[in-house]
Amino acid sequence: MLVTNAGPDAASRAALRVLTQLLPGVSAVEGAAWTDPVIPSEPPILRAAQLVEGATLRAIRVTNASRETDSGFGAFLDGTQSVRVIGHHFGLPIVIGTISAAIRVRSNRRLTTWGHQPPRVQRRIYAPLRYLPQMDMSMGTAGNGDWQIVDTSTADRDGNYPSQHPSALLESATRAVDRDREALEDQLAEAWCARGEAPLFVDGGINRSAKVAASSCALGVIKSHRTLYVEGDALRTVMGLKRGERSSIFRVSPRSRNSVLSWYLRLRDAGGRDPLWGLVRIESAECDRASERADEVSRWVMAETTPLALPDGRWDKMSYGIRDCEVFLRAIS
Amino acid sequence: MSEALGRVVATERKPNTPHEFHFWTAIDSPVGIGTIVRVDGAQPIDGHIPHIYGIVVEGFSYTDLQSPLHDVLGHDGSPSSAGFAATERAEIRLYTAAVLRQIPEEPLQPVPMGQVFLAEEADVQVALRMDSYLREGAHTGIPVGVYRAGGTDAVIYLDADFLLGPEAAHLNITGVSGLATKTSAVEWLLSSLFTHFPADKGSIAAVAFNVKGPDLCYLDQPGRVEESDEKLYEKMAVPAHPFPNVEYFAPYTAKGHTLNTFRNNEALLDKVTPLTWGLREVLQFAEVLLNKDDVDAKADALIDFIKENVVDKEFRDPVLSKMHRVQSFSDLDAWFRDVLQGMEKKDGESWRTHHVATIRKVRNRLSNISTRCAGLVTDSGEVSDLPFGSFADRTVYVVDVANLEEDAQDLIFARIVSKLREHLERRDLGVKHLVVFVDELNKYAPGDGADTYVKKMLLDIAERGRYLGLVLFSAQQFRSQVHRRVVGNSGTALFGRMDADELSTPGYAVLSPATRTKLATLEKGQLMIRHPHFTQPIFVRFPRPAVMQGREGAERYPQAAEIPLDAAVLRALRQLDPSITLQWVQEITALYNEDEVIRARNATVLGRPDNVKAYFQAQFRKIIPVQTPARPMAASIKSAPENDPYGF
């Protein structure tokens, strides 16, 4: 998932036209201000996970991994989002979010867009409707030029509404965009899994959707590690993984999500660098002979390290297929 | 409609203009440099969807790689491991096309965004404005080659009105030697011209000067035509056979025994006519042969005097011992001798204002002509020439000057072209349009150097010939070294494979680097064409000429070596009467010297009489053979008595 703050000017102008109809008195933001990057929902944490392979978490050399190894992935799934503040109403931020997702299929070593499901691009207005009673929603969608308005001031699971603080509302809008983007990715992943085609390389986790989490077609590769599913010695083991080594398999089963198998894999030597350099976590559906499956998938992920995803700054963990998805989505959204 | 093969793109850095646009294609698209494409605009202008036709002049390819170093790192510095990468990098094929035509033509706007299609045959006609001269009832198209790209085969036509006049005229071909481009292209184009030149535009013929090698010597002999070439002939509706009407002209060798041409093999001699001129013909073009440095105004005045008052006239003068009628170089020499002897007798230093030194110098120079141009210029004054006044339609007249000295080549060129011009001005050449083909234009009309007579003539044809129907087809290796007014006046230009040095000269700066690269690597049978109707150069293929190539002809019909005079006479006369034998020739010529025999042969060949033997024999002066008288029987002083016992 790529987060950028770019947005097409034409879209901003169209959204503003709709807003001025719905909300007289809205102030347009000159030059459209950029939001800060996505604010993580949780602080970095360590969380214990149930080991599936062996009694203790250890480093395992991925067998038969070499430069000549063929990757079994047949496609790549990623999504992008961009967020831009386009107006204020007495300090309350109103943003437009553009989200997109696509599956790029590999054929003869070249990537093309999956023909069965076109890439998805959606643009929405995110506004704190609770604090904007003046907003005339009676105009309906006919006058909105197909713009859907998403309320960013809904109550959370505990029934608390976000503060009226503009930053809190902006953070809430950004999270809403994030959720929409994830939903779009999940739709595509489910469609892929329903067809049971070749293994799909998903950028990020696969455990949001039950169908995807249970499918042998989808494999999630997570590059960010705000939550590390290891503690104590296991943490030292993961941080000490050498290139071509994976951790033992463990089970990730968050409360609100689906249970999947997972393991860490070092793609590049981290010598002299951040200990998370070249480290990814892979998610796979529950299966028999999990060790063999983990080795196989690890080999595939390692095979995807060439060509390099440079100039993307996350090239140490990113596969070229995912970069291709992002470039593609940036071009169409 | 065919499938779109690309999309127009434009950025602020690389915007489209009314004359240029950019588009991308799939990696496996058949687009290349020289491909003609059509853009269908998305927005109508005045109710019409704009169509833009362009030709690809530049191509770019790149990937999303930011630095070559990233690729090195990605493959651990091992090129062989790059093949194992699971995915190929995203790659683009981006092309720049020069606009050939926009429809509607007004308002002329930058090329809009739109889909790009490979031009089909009908598109090619529109793109190159050929539709204006391929109309039913007004078809003036002359096929020059086939444009081929991505499955499209389109015949490219030149407009006869712009190739042979009156709108524009002349054609110039450039290309490196030895790649069968220049001569082959001209041979092919003449075939096409003779086949497709509109009948209502009148008759047409060609005079080709063969200036080197045997290239043009076998135009009437069939050559090898490949299957692929046959298809091209068929496509362009030109019969794949040699020229049915070709006449060759060549002077004799210096000895005068055989014709000085690569085509002097006995099997081919029937179509070769000797080219011989006498004093009158040469003196008209004396300035071609005489060096301006030695022939000053005084000498010029004497030459004019001779031309006006002496040649072909009964000339009397007190200083002369007799009346002279000068008709040949030998007559002229006799006249000079008489003049100089007369002056010596009178001890005079000048005659009719001409100083004796000037007279001696002019005598020396003029007498020298028959030596320098031996074989072409005859002492006797016999003339065997091109059939000025009776040129035949669709006939090629080849004048073989390949083996001649430079002076003789210049003389032949100057005189023949002048005569052609005179006859075309009077409209009595026999044909309405005449193509003159001259190779090695670097030599005859160089961009630098002195203004020679030949160069002035070429400039004159290039600048004024089209009004007369006199069209110059010229060729050379280095266009940049040819006089600018000659190539500049050539409405049509063909380019074969070019030398890189030549391509780096300023004249080619208008071509894109990719087009120049393509020119430097053109295959045999490919040409780049510039024509007044085409706003950009076009690449075409043309078939190998259906005539025997010079090298093959020289192998099959080896050039005859210098042979004894009697054999040479036999060879010449046998073309007229196959019953003539060597023994007969030897009997007839036994009593005569070589000059007399050559004169008799030339007169017979020129006269083409019905009774060749009688005509040939009649050319010799009567010589009564000296008969040794029989020894008379000595009569006895006194007859012996019949009964003389000692008598015998």
Pick out its properties.
heterodimer, A: alpha/beta, two-stranded parallel sheet, globular, disordered N terminus, B: 648 residues, Rossmann fold, 6-stranded antiparallel β-barrel, 24 strands
The major pleated sheet of chain B works out as: 10 strands, mixed
Number of strands of chain A: 17
Class derived from helix and strand content of chain B = alpha/beta
- What coarse outline of chain A follows from CA principal-axis ratios? globular
Count the helices of chain B. How many?
Answer: 21
Q: Using the CA coordinates, give the radius of gyration of chain B.
A: 34 Å
Named at the architecture level, the CATH assignment of the largest domain in chain B is 3-Layer(aba) Sandwich
Tell me the β content of chain A.
25-35%
For the largest beta-sheet of chain A, the strand count, sense and barrel status come to:
13 strands, mixed
What number of structural domains do the residues of chain A give?
1
Segments of chain B where pLDDT lies below 50 for 5+ residues?
Answer: none
Summarize the structure.
The complex is a heterodimer of chains A (333) and B (648). With 333 residues, chain A is an alpha/beta fold.
How are the secondary structure elements laid out?
The complex is a heterodimer of chains A (333) and B (648).
Chain A: E1 2-4, H1 9-22, E2 27-34, E3 45-46, E4 50-51, E5 59-61, E6 75-89, E7 92-107, E8 110-113, E9 120-127, E10 148-151, H2 166-195, E11 200-203, H3 210-213, E12 218-222, E13 227-228, H4 233-239, E14 245-247, E15 250-252, E16 260-266, E17 279-284, H5 290-303, H6 320-332
Chain B: E1 6-9, E2 20-25, E3 36-41, E4 51-63, H1 68-74, E5 91-103, E6 114-118, H2 121-127, E7 134-135, E8 138-139, E9 141-149, E10 152-159, H3 160-163, E11 171-174, H4 182-196, E12 204-210, H5 227-235, E13 246-250, E14 272-274, H6 279-283, H7 286-289, H8 297-310, E15 314-315, E16 324-325, H9 329-346, E17 350-351, E18 354-355, H10 356-372, E19 396-400, H11 406-426, E20 433-438, H12 441-444, H13 453-468, E21 470-476, H14 484-488, E22 492-495, H15 500-503, H16 513-520, E23 526-530, E24 538-541, H17 550-556, H18 565-574, H19 582-589, H20 594-607, H21 612-618
Parallel strand pairs in B: 11-21, 11-22, 12-19, 12-20, 13-14, 13-19, 20-21
Antiparallel strand pairs in B: 1-2, 1-6, 2-5, 3-4, 3-6, 4-5, 7-8, 9-10, 15-16, 17-18, 22-23, 23-24
Helix pairs in contact in B: 8-10, 9-10, 11-13, 18-19, 18-20, 20-21
